[in-house]
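Listing S7. Sequence submitted for prediction.
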Amino acid sequence: MRIGIDFDNTIICYDRVFNSVGIEKGLVPESLETGKGFVRDYLRQHDREKEWIWLQGYVYGTRLADAQPYEGVKEFFDYCALEHIECFIISHKTVYPYSGQKYNLHDAARTWLEEQDFKAETFFELTKEDKVKRINNLECDIFIDDLPEFLSFPGFCNRVAKILFDPLNQYSGMKDDFIHAGTWKEIILTVQRHCRS
């Protein structure tokens, strides 16, 4: 079995980092609820899209060391290694931020993965189309992502089972063909069921 896994907001959790950097840079109040989505929504509600774009580039380029893996994701990789399941990290990520300094976002992500001791072949694709092609070319049986809009993107091989990682249960009411999972423990159970079927 082969499993593809998204990187941003699927393996790596930025929630606390966006709040702390947003507060540090005077962009959001300390009282704001913790979470990347809350920071994004706050800045957009205050017509500060440019600051949001800048903040993303700054965090992704310079502050990954402050981000943590999602709870249970390392156990997932350990389980896959034990069961001889191949894992690939496949992300859609620009090389440089859309605004601000030209931090190399691919290098920053690879450094974080090495420091966290994730052992998986990693691919950073520049477009969503290329990300889908990579998933198909690697013949992934399962792909895990946090974005329903990507899992709905055209071009996936029919054989790919899609798991939507939704730790905040934002998409529970959606009508789709994804397997919903709120934790990495749930994803392990889903993979076990897939192996048995």
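Caption to Listing S7: primary sequence and predicted structure tokens for the chain studied. The mean pLDDT is 93. Strands lie at 2-5, 12-13, 68-69, 86-92, 121-125, 142-145, 161-165, 179-181.
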